[in-house]
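Structure ticket #2291
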Amino acid sequence: MKDYIKYIIFMPLTWTQYFTIPSPLSKRNDNYYPLTMVCSTIWIMAYTFVIVWFTFDVTEGCLESKYSLLPMFLYPFGVTFRDIKKVSDFQDALGVFKTELPD
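Resolution: structure written out below.
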């Protein structure tokens, strides 16, 4: 997927996080790191709640099963795709290092 399409799709999430989590790297917010940690934890809790709610709703409502099958079958594929992307990015970085730093 093109980068600009990902940016447009995830714009509501990234912009909301940008405005709700203060950056501790800026000069005026250098003492805000505890607030940054609390805000980040709240966002992670919200994402976790949505994932668990989605899993429960699909399992109970659509599949009519009392066992949660999505985490066993669907989520490992997502992790695999993420890891494949990480490996390809690492190989690209190694190629750049070999050309720019030959020793």
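Closing remark: The chain has two domains: 1-65, 69-103.
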